[in-house]
Amino acid sequence: MLRERLKIEAEIIEAAKRVEARYHREEQQLALTDANAAAEFFRAIAPSGKRLHANVDEPRVMKYIRFVEGHVLKWRLFTPYMSGLRKAFEIGVGPGYLFRIMIDLYGTDMRGCDLAPTKNRVFRDLREELGISARVMTHKVVAGRDIPIPEGSEAVLAFWTVFTETFSLDDHKWFVAQCREKLVGPKKLVLLFNTGGYDECPEIFEWYQTFGEFPLLTEGADLSAGPREKKMSQRDKAAFCVAEL
Ligand SMILES: C[S@@+](CC[C@H](N)C(=O)[O-])C[C@H]1O[C@@H](n2cnc3c(N)ncnc32)[C@H](O)[C@@H]1O
Questions:
Q1: Ligand 1 atom 1 nearest Cα
Q2: Phi-psi bin for 190: left (phi > 0), alpha (psi -120 to 50), beta?
Q3: Using CA atoms, how far apart are residues 88 and 113, in angstroms rounded to an integer?
Q4: Cβ < 6 Å from ligand 1: which residues?
Q5: Class of domain 69-244
Q6: What contacts 216, CB < 8 A, 6 or more positions away?
Q7: Interatomic CA distance for residues 69 and 131, integer angstroms
Q8: How far, in Å, CA of 127 to CA of 125, rounded?
Q9: Whose alpha carbon is nearest atom 15 of ligand 1?
Q10: How many CB atoms lie within 10 A of CB 237?
Q11: Predicted confidence band at 204 (pLDDT cuts at 50, 70, 90)?
Q12: Helix orientation angle between 5-33 and 35-45, rounded to the nearest 10 degrees
Protein backbone atom coordinates (compact mmCIF):
# COMPACT_ATOMS: atom_id res chain seq x y z
CA MET A 1 0.00 0.00 0.00
CA LEU A 2 1.57 3.28 -1.08
CA ARG A 3 -0.22 5.81 1.11
CA GLU A 4 -2.57 5.75 4.03
CA ARG A 5 -6.09 5.12 2.85
CA LEU A 6 -7.76 7.62 5.16
CA LYS A 7 -5.57 10.45 3.85
CA ILE A 8 -6.31 9.52 0.25
CA GLU A 9 -10.04 9.45 0.93
CA ALA A 10 -9.90 12.78 2.80
CA GLU A 11 -8.06 14.43 -0.11
CA ILE A 12 -10.66 13.23 -2.60
CA ILE A 13 -13.50 14.44 -0.40
CA GLU A 14 -11.81 17.84 -0.04
CA ALA A 15 -11.37 18.06 -3.82
CA ALA A 16 -15.10 17.44 -4.34
CA LYS A 17 -15.95 20.05 -1.69
CA ARG A 18 -13.79 22.61 -3.54
CA VAL A 19 -15.73 21.94 -6.74
CA GLU A 20 -19.01 22.28 -4.84
CA ALA A 21 -17.91 25.58 -3.27
CA ARG A 22 -17.01 26.93 -6.73
CA TYR A 23 -20.43 25.98 -8.07
CA HIS A 24 -22.13 27.81 -5.23
CA ARG A 25 -20.05 30.93 -5.75
CA GLU A 26 -20.89 30.84 -9.45
CA GLU A 27 -24.59 30.29 -8.71
CA GLN A 28 -24.65 33.18 -6.22
CA GLN A 29 -22.89 35.46 -8.68
CA LEU A 30 -25.48 34.57 -11.31
CA ALA A 31 -28.33 35.20 -8.87
CA LEU A 32 -27.19 38.80 -8.49
CA THR A 33 -27.64 39.45 -12.19
CA ASP A 34 -29.90 36.76 -13.58
CA ALA A 35 -32.22 34.90 -11.22
CA ASN A 36 -33.49 32.57 -13.95
CA ALA A 37 -30.01 31.56 -14.97
CA ALA A 38 -29.13 30.93 -11.32
CA ALA A 39 -32.20 28.73 -10.93
CA GLU A 40 -31.15 26.72 -13.97
CA PHE A 41 -27.47 26.63 -13.04
CA PHE A 42 -27.09 22.99 -11.99
CA ARG A 43 -29.26 21.80 -14.88
CA ALA A 44 -27.10 23.67 -17.33
CA ILE A 45 -23.80 22.25 -16.11
CA ALA A 46 -24.91 18.62 -16.40
CA PRO A 47 -28.16 18.07 -18.30
CA SER A 48 -29.92 14.93 -17.22
CA GLY A 49 -32.62 12.93 -18.91
CA LYS A 50 -33.85 11.86 -15.49
CA ARG A 51 -34.79 15.31 -14.30
CA LEU A 52 -38.22 14.33 -13.06
CA HIS A 53 -36.77 11.65 -10.84
CA ALA A 54 -34.15 13.85 -9.19
CA ASN A 55 -34.69 14.54 -5.49
CA VAL A 56 -33.91 18.20 -5.90
CA ASP A 57 -33.84 20.40 -8.94
CA GLU A 58 -30.37 19.44 -10.04
CA PRO A 59 -28.97 16.56 -12.10
CA ARG A 60 -28.57 13.15 -10.53
CA VAL A 61 -24.88 13.32 -11.21
CA MET A 62 -24.56 15.93 -8.43
CA LYS A 63 -24.97 13.03 -5.99
CA TYR A 64 -21.24 12.34 -6.43
CA ILE A 65 -20.58 15.76 -4.86
CA ARG A 66 -23.46 16.04 -2.39
CA PHE A 67 -22.83 12.57 -0.97
CA VAL A 68 -19.13 12.42 -1.70
CA GLU A 69 -18.21 10.67 1.56
CA GLY A 70 -20.34 7.61 0.75
CA HIS A 71 -19.19 7.59 -2.87
CA VAL A 72 -15.54 7.55 -1.77
CA LEU A 73 -15.90 5.03 1.07
CA LYS A 74 -17.83 2.54 -1.08
CA TRP A 75 -14.61 1.64 -2.88
CA ARG A 76 -13.24 -0.04 0.26
CA LEU A 77 -15.32 -3.05 -0.58
CA PHE A 78 -14.02 -3.42 -4.13
CA THR A 79 -10.39 -2.27 -4.18
CA PRO A 80 -9.00 -5.44 -2.52
CA TYR A 81 -9.94 -7.29 -5.72
CA MET A 82 -7.76 -4.86 -7.70
CA SER A 83 -4.62 -4.67 -5.56
CA GLY A 84 -1.26 -5.29 -7.19
CA LEU A 85 -2.24 -4.14 -10.67
CA ARG A 86 0.57 -2.31 -12.43
CA LYS A 87 -1.52 -0.80 -15.19
CA ALA A 88 -5.29 -0.76 -15.65
CA PHE A 89 -7.92 0.72 -17.93
CA GLU A 90 -11.23 1.95 -16.53
CA ILE A 91 -14.30 2.26 -18.72
CA GLY A 92 -16.74 4.97 -17.58
CA VAL A 93 -14.41 6.82 -15.18
CA GLY A 94 -17.22 9.17 -14.07
CA PRO A 95 -16.16 11.30 -11.07
CA GLY A 96 -12.78 9.56 -10.96
CA TYR A 97 -12.84 8.49 -7.32
CA LEU A 98 -11.85 4.86 -7.95
CA PHE A 99 -9.31 6.02 -10.52
CA ARG A 100 -7.55 8.30 -8.04
CA ILE A 101 -7.72 5.72 -5.22
CA MET A 102 -6.04 3.11 -7.46
CA ILE A 103 -3.20 5.51 -8.28
CA ASP A 104 -2.63 6.62 -4.70
CA LEU A 105 -3.27 3.34 -2.89
CA TYR A 106 -1.62 0.83 -5.19
CA GLY A 107 0.49 2.97 -7.53
CA THR A 108 -1.45 1.59 -10.50
CA ASP A 109 -0.77 3.35 -13.78
CA MET A 110 -4.41 4.19 -14.49
CA ARG A 111 -5.89 5.09 -17.88
CA GLY A 112 -9.52 5.25 -18.81
CA CYS A 113 -12.28 6.47 -21.04
CA ASP A 114 -15.62 8.19 -20.75
CA LEU A 115 -18.06 10.16 -22.87
CA ALA A 116 -17.15 13.71 -23.98
CA PRO A 117 -16.40 15.87 -20.92
CA THR A 118 -18.20 18.80 -22.54
CA LYS A 119 -21.46 16.92 -21.96
CA ASN A 120 -20.95 16.70 -18.21
CA ARG A 121 -19.29 19.54 -16.37
CA VAL A 122 -19.58 17.85 -12.98
CA PHE A 123 -17.43 14.88 -14.03
CA ARG A 124 -15.09 17.15 -15.97
CA ASP A 125 -14.51 19.47 -13.00
CA LEU A 126 -14.09 16.61 -10.52
CA ARG A 127 -11.53 14.84 -12.70
CA GLU A 128 -9.68 18.12 -13.23
CA GLU A 129 -9.62 18.78 -9.47
CA LEU A 130 -8.33 15.25 -8.86
CA GLY A 131 -5.56 15.82 -11.42
CA ILE A 132 -6.49 12.87 -13.63
CA SER A 133 -8.03 14.50 -16.73
CA ALA A 134 -5.03 13.85 -18.96
CA ARG A 135 -5.30 10.12 -18.27
CA VAL A 136 -8.94 9.88 -19.36
CA MET A 137 -9.65 9.80 -23.08
CA THR A 138 -12.96 10.50 -24.72
CA HIS A 139 -14.28 7.25 -26.10
CA LYS A 140 -17.78 5.80 -26.20
CA VAL A 141 -17.71 2.04 -25.86
CA VAL A 142 -20.03 0.54 -28.45
CA ALA A 143 -20.33 -3.17 -29.26
CA GLY A 144 -18.08 -4.08 -32.17
CA ARG A 145 -15.97 -0.89 -32.07
CA ASP A 146 -12.35 -1.31 -31.07
CA ILE A 147 -11.73 -0.28 -27.43
CA PRO A 148 -8.50 1.73 -27.04
CA ILE A 149 -7.11 -0.30 -24.13
CA PRO A 150 -3.51 0.95 -23.83
CA GLU A 151 -0.63 -1.43 -24.39
CA GLY A 152 0.61 -3.10 -21.23
CA SER A 153 -2.70 -2.90 -19.36
CA GLU A 154 -3.22 -5.79 -16.97
CA ALA A 155 -6.88 -5.18 -16.22
CA VAL A 156 -10.10 -3.63 -17.46
CA LEU A 157 -12.23 -2.14 -14.69
CA ALA A 158 -15.81 -0.97 -15.13
CA PHE A 159 -18.21 -0.16 -12.31
CA TRP A 160 -21.92 0.60 -12.50
CA THR A 161 -21.55 0.13 -16.21
CA VAL A 162 -23.86 1.97 -18.54
CA PHE A 163 -22.20 0.87 -21.77
CA THR A 164 -23.39 -2.74 -21.30
CA GLU A 165 -27.02 -1.83 -20.73
CA THR A 166 -28.10 -2.77 -24.23
CA PHE A 167 -25.52 -5.53 -24.76
CA SER A 168 -26.74 -8.89 -26.03
CA LEU A 169 -24.90 -12.10 -25.06
CA ASP A 170 -22.95 -11.87 -28.34
CA ASP A 171 -21.96 -8.28 -27.49
CA HIS A 172 -20.67 -9.45 -24.09
CA LYS A 173 -18.71 -12.21 -25.84
CA TRP A 174 -17.18 -9.63 -28.16
CA PHE A 175 -16.32 -7.37 -25.18
CA VAL A 176 -14.59 -10.13 -23.20
CA ALA A 177 -12.69 -11.22 -26.34
CA GLN A 178 -11.44 -7.61 -26.79
CA CYS A 179 -10.18 -7.57 -23.21
CA ARG A 180 -8.56 -11.00 -23.54
CA GLU A 181 -6.80 -9.96 -26.75
CA LYS A 182 -5.50 -6.62 -25.47
CA LEU A 183 -4.62 -7.29 -21.84
CA VAL A 184 -1.31 -8.69 -20.64
CA GLY A 185 -0.18 -10.56 -17.50
CA PRO A 186 -3.10 -11.48 -15.23
CA LYS A 187 -5.60 -10.26 -17.87
CA LYS A 188 -8.08 -9.29 -15.19
CA LEU A 189 -11.63 -8.15 -15.75
CA VAL A 190 -13.40 -6.48 -12.83
CA LEU A 191 -17.00 -5.53 -13.53
CA LEU A 192 -19.94 -4.26 -11.58
CA PHE A 193 -22.87 -4.31 -13.94
CA ASN A 194 -25.66 -1.84 -13.60
CA THR A 195 -28.38 -4.29 -12.77
CA GLY A 196 -30.88 -3.01 -15.35
CA GLY A 197 -30.68 -5.36 -18.31
CA TYR A 198 -27.90 -7.59 -16.98
CA ASP A 199 -29.87 -9.61 -14.46
CA GLU A 200 -32.87 -9.71 -16.72
CA CYS A 201 -30.90 -11.94 -19.09
CA PRO A 202 -30.03 -15.14 -17.23
CA GLU A 203 -27.98 -16.43 -20.15
CA ILE A 204 -25.56 -13.50 -19.76
CA PHE A 205 -25.10 -14.14 -16.03
CA GLU A 206 -24.72 -17.88 -16.71
CA TRP A 207 -22.09 -17.25 -19.36
CA TYR A 208 -19.99 -15.02 -17.05
CA GLN A 209 -20.25 -17.78 -14.42
CA THR A 210 -18.46 -20.18 -16.76
CA PHE A 211 -15.18 -18.23 -16.35
CA GLY A 212 -15.74 -15.49 -13.74
CA GLU A 213 -16.21 -15.38 -10.01
CA PHE A 214 -18.85 -13.52 -8.07
CA PRO A 215 -17.01 -12.95 -4.79
CA LEU A 216 -19.68 -10.95 -3.01
CA LEU A 217 -22.09 -13.85 -3.44
CA THR A 218 -19.72 -16.68 -2.67
CA GLU A 219 -17.10 -15.51 -0.18
CA GLY A 220 -19.28 -13.92 2.47
CA ALA A 221 -17.42 -10.67 1.80
CA ASP A 222 -17.12 -8.11 4.57
CA LEU A 223 -19.91 -5.81 3.51
CA SER A 224 -19.24 -3.50 6.43
CA ALA A 225 -16.30 -2.11 4.44
CA GLY A 226 -18.29 1.00 3.58
CA PRO A 227 -21.58 2.44 4.76
CA ARG A 228 -23.35 2.07 1.43
CA GLU A 229 -22.41 -1.58 1.03
CA LYS A 230 -24.52 -2.61 4.01
CA LYS A 231 -27.45 -1.81 1.78
CA MET A 232 -26.29 -4.03 -1.10
CA SER A 233 -29.03 -6.27 -2.37
CA GLN A 234 -28.50 -9.83 -3.65
CA ARG A 235 -29.03 -8.33 -7.09
CA ASP A 236 -26.14 -5.91 -6.61
CA LYS A 237 -23.90 -8.63 -5.22
CA ALA A 238 -24.64 -10.83 -8.22
CA ALA A 239 -23.57 -8.00 -10.52
CA PHE A 240 -19.95 -7.94 -9.26
CA CYS A 241 -17.77 -10.18 -11.38
CA VAL A 242 -14.02 -10.77 -11.25
CA ALA A 243 -12.39 -12.85 -13.96
CA GLU A 244 -8.92 -13.78 -15.12
CA LEU A 245 -9.00 -14.16 -18.84
C1 LIG B 1 -23.17 5.20 -13.51
S2 LIG B 1 -21.73 6.10 -13.97
C3 LIG B 1 -20.49 5.22 -13.02
C4 LIG B 1 -19.23 6.01 -12.89
C5 LIG B 1 -18.07 5.27 -12.20
N6 LIG B 1 -17.72 4.07 -12.92
C7 LIG B 1 -18.44 4.95 -10.77
O8 LIG B 1 -18.72 3.78 -10.48
O9 LIG B 1 -18.45 5.86 -9.93
C10 LIG B 1 -21.44 5.50 -15.64
C11 LIG B 1 -20.28 6.18 -16.33
O12 LIG B 1 -20.10 5.59 -17.61
C13 LIG B 1 -20.02 6.60 -18.60
N14 LIG B 1 -20.53 6.02 -19.85
C15 LIG B 1 -21.82 5.83 -20.19
N16 LIG B 1 -21.90 5.22 -21.39
C17 LIG B 1 -20.63 5.00 -21.80
C18 LIG B 1 -20.05 4.41 -22.96
N19 LIG B 1 -20.81 3.91 -23.93
N20 LIG B 1 -18.70 4.36 -23.06
C21 LIG B 1 -17.92 4.87 -22.07
N22 LIG B 1 -18.41 5.43 -20.95
C23 LIG B 1 -19.74 5.50 -20.82
C24 LIG B 1 -20.84 7.74 -18.03
O25 LIG B 1 -20.49 8.98 -18.61
C26 LIG B 1 -20.46 7.66 -16.56
O27 LIG B 1 -19.26 8.30 -16.29
A1: 160
A2: beta
A3: 11
A4: 91-92, 94-95, 113-115, 123, 140-141, 159-160, 162-163
A5: alpha beta
A6: 77, 223, 232, 236, 237, 238, 240
A7: 19
A8: 6
A9: 162
A10: 17
A11: very high
A12: 150
Q: Which amino acid is at 121?
A: R
Tally Cβ neighbours within 10 Å of residue 47.
Answer: 13
Provide CATH 3.40.50.150 ranges for the chain: 69-244
Question: Taking Cα atoms as reference points, which of 241, 233, 8 lies closest to residue 105?
Answer: 8
| CA–CA gap between residue 105 and residue 5 (Å, rounded) | 7
Ligand 1 atom nearest to 90, measured from its CA: 6
Report whether pLDDT(105) > 80: yes
Residue located nearest, by CA, to atom 9 of ligand 1: 94
For 94, residues 6+ apart whose C-beta sits below 8 A from its C-beta are 64, 114, 123, 160
- Cα pseudo-dihedral 227, 97, 141, 149, rounded to 10: -120
Task: Count how many Cα atoms sit within 13 Å of the Cα of residue 184 in the half-sphere of its side chain.
Answer: 7
Average pLDDT of the chain to the nearest whole number: 89
Q: Is the pLDDT of residue 53 over 60?
A: no
Query: What percentage of the chain has pLDDT greater than the value 70?
Result: 87
**Average of per-residue pLDDT across 32-36:** 91
